[in-house]
């Protein structure tokens, strides 16, 4: 094992290299003496060297060399509890890493063997509603890449828009609608880092077809076809759940399930050439009628995730085994 770094604090203080882009400031002249100044929020994304520091911290401390990464959605962190030869690293100890602030997201990178396959897991993810810019919510994907991961399994809890979906169903994600992206809010905004990928990555094959096929045969093996669908995930910023009118609009757009995560991670994973398999657990049925008195809430999301954790663990475990072949 490599020598211990002098202190974690040294790492924490690491700043993006000199010359990396500053936050953009655009000056828009409104005519006459009026002048509107608009500053895009947040810092520039961490550069390759800064992310290498996080990756090296982990590589120096774990014996595992995973090619598969797993992002655990709300209430799905127990996916990693059955890993063999577990090695866990709290986010706050990892240099340059954000910290989780949401119930149901523990905040640990966990390495271990899943069905004998080495994996690197995010037990807890980051969301833009926590105050993080999108690039930071997806920064762990780049850390995974530098650790050696080439395929990711991304999971989330989502509201079911499609009226055929029930609480506890699984939706294999075949595509997404990136609502923040429509407004120019992408994790790839800013100077492109060619070390990770191209300026203009394609997204028409974001969710690997072959892995979806594998997942369908896993689902068959498990005998859970009835409760598994394939559909389109739409990402909104949250943290408020949707109004009935918004949900009706999202349904018109072709969305089957709605959530507040995943898309930024997938965009960043595809940008750096990773294969992506993703699924949503339907934790609540979206309320599509104005006369309903029900309201979505995070407690029901966590409870629904908890109720299905064994099936999801098995699905992820079987997929990891196939992805490793
Ligand atoms: O991290 P995921 O997308 O699984 O979490 C969903 C979206 C919100 O964070 C939360 C709302 O209940 O669940
Ligand atoms: N936006 C959104 N995210 C969710 N996460 C779990 N359920 C929901 C939902 O209904 N809406």
TrEMBL record:
GO CC terms? cytoplasm
Is Transmembrane helix one of the keywords UniProt gives this record?
Answer: no
Q: Which UniProt keywords apply?
A: Glycosyltransferase, Transferase
Q: Where does a purine D-ribonucleoside bind?
A: 242, 284
The segment(s) forming the Nucleoside phosphorylase domain are 68-319
Q: Which GO terms describe its molecular function?
A: purine-nucleoside phosphorylase activity
Q: Which SUPFAM superfamilies match?
A: Purine and uridine phosphorylases
InterPro entries documented for this protein:
Nucleoside_phosphorylase_d, Nucleoside_phosphorylase_sf, Pur_Nuc_Pase_Ino/Guo-sp, Purine_phosphorylase
Q: What is the annotated role of this protein in its UniProt record? A: The purine nucleoside phosphorylases catalyze the phosphorolytic breakdown of the N-glycosidic bond in the beta-(deoxy)ribonucleoside molecules, with the formation of the corresponding free purine bases and pentose-1-phosphate.
Q: What is this protein called?
A: Purine nucleoside phosphorylase
Natural source organism: Amphibalanus amphitrite (Striped barnacle)
């Amino acid at each position: 094992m490599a020598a211990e770094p002098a202190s974690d604090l040294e790492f924490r203080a690491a700043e993006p290299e000199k010359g990396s882009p500053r936050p953009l400031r655009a000056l828009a002249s409104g005519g006459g003496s009026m002048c509107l100044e608009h500053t895009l929020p947040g810092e520039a994304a961490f550069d390759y060297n800064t992310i290498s520091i996080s990756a090296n911290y982990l590589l120096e401390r774990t014996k595992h060399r995973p090619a598969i990464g797993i992002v655990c959605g709300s209430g799905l962190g127990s996916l990693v509890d059955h890993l063999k030869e577990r090695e866990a690293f709290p986010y706050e100890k990892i240099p340059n890493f954000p910290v989780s602030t949401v119930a149901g997201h523990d905040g640990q990178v966990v390495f271990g063997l899943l069905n004998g396959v080495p994996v690197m897991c995010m037990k807890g993810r980051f969301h833009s509603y926590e105050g993080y810019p999108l690039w930071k919510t997806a920064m762990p994907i780049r850390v995974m890449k530098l650790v050696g991961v080439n395929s990711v399994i991304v999971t989330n809890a989502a509201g079911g828009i499609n009226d055929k979906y029930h609480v506890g169903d699984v939706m294999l994600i075949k595509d997404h609608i990136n609502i923040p992206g429509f407004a120019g809010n992408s994790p790839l905004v800013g100077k492109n880092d060619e070390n990770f990928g191209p300026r203009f990555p394609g997204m028409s094959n974001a969710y690997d077809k072959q892995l979806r096929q594998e997942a369908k045969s896993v689902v068959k093996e498990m005998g859970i076809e009835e409760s598994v669908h394939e559909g389109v995930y739409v990402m909104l910023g949250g943290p408020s759940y949707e109004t009935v009118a918004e949900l009706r609009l999202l349904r018109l757009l072709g969305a089957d399930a709605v959530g507040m995560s995943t898309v930024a991670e997938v965009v960043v994973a595809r940008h750096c050439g990773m294969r992506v398999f993703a699924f949503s657990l339907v934790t609540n049925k979206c309320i599509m009628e104005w006369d309903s008195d029900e309201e979505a809430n995070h407690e029901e999301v966590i409870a629904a995730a908890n109720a299905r954790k064994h099936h999801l663990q098995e699905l992820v475990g079987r997929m990891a085994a196939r992805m490793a072949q």
